[in-house]
Amino acid sequence: MKYEAEESIEYESTSRRTYEYLIIDDAGTAYTNIAKTVHTDTVEELKAYIKAKKYFWNYDNNEVDTNVEKMKFEDIAYSGYFGRIEKAGYTVYSCVNDESTEFYKYNLVYKLVSNTYEYASVNIAIRSSFLFLAMFIYIIISIGHKKGEEAIYLNSLDNIPLEIVGTVALILIGIEALFLFGGMSIGIDYTSISSRMIDTIISLCFVLGIVMYITITITGVTIVRRIKAKVFWKNTLIYKFAKWIKRSTSNMLTDINTTGKLIVIFGAFYIIQLVLTIKFITDGAIYIFWLIAVWGVTLKMLIDRLNKTKKIKEKIKNMYDGNKDSQPLNEEEYRGESKEVAHWLNDISGGLTNAIEEAMKSERLKTELITNVSHDIKTPLTSIINYVDLMKQENIENEKVKEYLEILDNKSQRLKKLTEDLVEASKASSGNIKLNIEKLNVKELIKQVRGEFEDKFEQRRLEIIENLPDTEVYIKADSRYMFRVMENMYVNISKYALENSRVYVDVKKENDIVKIELKNISKDKLNISVDELMQRFVRGDSARTTEGSGLGISIAKSLTTLQKGKFNIYLDGDLFKVVIQFKVVNGDGEF
Asked: d(Cα 361, Cα 523) in Å, to the nearest integer?
């Protein structure tokens, strides 16, 4: 390229010559901010002046000439800035005049090469964002946990009220931000300070940035941990103050009776409602939301009170049903008189549970005692029975001795039956019996028992009148123990029914219940209550003239109850009536 004479040079007046240049356009006109002297009044002298500097960058005849690293042609060929210079066809000579200031050199390098790595920067930013998001989610999930444990653990920082932690964090972040960005806001001229000072400022900013990062991280971690442990609201001064107000109000209301409390609560609700209504009428519709909020809070309080009352009702029902495994009421959920009621119910329930356990323990001890004593009696009794049998086989001519042997035989057999009944009654009352529950035909059961007792009934001239349904009726029971129940009832009838009378046996099916009713007229006056008759060792004849242990009815009732049936006795004058109930089972064995 050829240049015109000196008059084609236009000198620009500027007071800032840290960065100096010479630009020649395609018309040959040269522009420069280098001061005109006897040594810079030609284009060639200007070029020589620039090339003599420590840092220069020149573009002439489509070639780059520079002594600055990272600014050679192969480094900036794809830079947007260089592309515009190349397209314009200009000749550019530039240099940094002040050797102590390297800021412009690095800034120029950054601007020239930034476009080259633009795509790579975007790619790295996307990948970094995904990596940051994954790390963020992992940290959020893992905060507060210990290896192999589900609970959330809090430290001493988490117990500090959130307002205090937040205030301290904001103050620290504000101070750090002031140092970081304050210099920019007051307009520091970084071109007028040394590179060492710039390095110091950068180092200080780096340290402050780390401190700010740590502050934000610690604050965020304690917030997340509080949320996961569900104490975010509880560890605030507002919550503590509200709780104090509530506790103070509750303590104040404790000394007031129920009627007074209702008056105070209703009065406060009425005043709030009245004020909000007036505000709604005078100041606008915004107060309708406050009215809705008040009603919502009131509704929630009523629902909470109803739920607590329901828990008290369920507790009372469990106590009534004898459910000793029911959970105690949480007394912390209640306030005032309700809390006292919950405390009393827990005490009563605990006392009942202890009493039941003591009763069961006593019953077990009785059962063990009866079993052991019966076993000890049974061994010598068996020997007595055997020897009596042997003596009866001897040819004894003395009639008196034969009579004595007969008495011994009867009494020993009676004692044997008594010990067997005693053991069975003990097992039945304690539930220490293994049941084989199966589908049982009630009509067949009645027929089998009747066949066993026909002879005894005929001896006492008792007429059995049975009323059985036309269809088969089934129940779920143990056939062996159910036979024993009916056997005991028939034995009772054969002993205590009035001779030359009728005995009624009815089987009735009512909905899903089958009833077995046995009725007879007692030969003796029934001067005893049903409750007494249900007890062990109690018989209908107070004179005890009949043989029996007084355990038949008790055993029958216990065995019926064990098989999930019901056993009841009714006395009406001399009429003795037994009603046994079970659920009906259909043909395929289902209820």
From this structure: 40
Task: State which H helix or E strand residue 579 sits in.
Answer: strand 575-585
- Among 106, 107, 119, which Cα is nearest to 78's? 119
Distance CA 385, CA 37 (A): 152
Q: Transcribe 83-96 into DSSP letters.
A: HHHHHHT-EEEEEE
What is the end-to-end Cα distance of the chain in Å, rounded?
113
Weakest mean pLDDT among 99-103, 378-382, 425-429, 489-493: 99-103
Neighbours of 432 (CB within 10 A): 12
Helix (H, G, I), strand (E, B) or coil at 590: coil
DSSP assignment, residue 498?
Answer: P
Give 309's contacts (C-beta < 8 A, 6+ positions apart). Answer: 338
Angle between helices 287-321 and 258-283 (to 10 degrees): 160
Report the DSSP pairing between strands 19-24 and 30-32.
antiparallel
Instruction: Tell me the mean pLDDT in the region 38-61.
Output: 86
How does strand 513-521 pair with strand 566-572? unpaired
The 10 Å Cβ neighbour count of residue 323 is 13
Q: Considering only CA atoms, which of 450, 467, 466 is closest in space to residue 458?
A: 450
Distances (CA, A) of 19 to 8, 94, 96, 413: 22, 7, 5, 133
Alpha helices in 322-398 (DSSP H): 336-393
pTM assigned to the model: 0.40
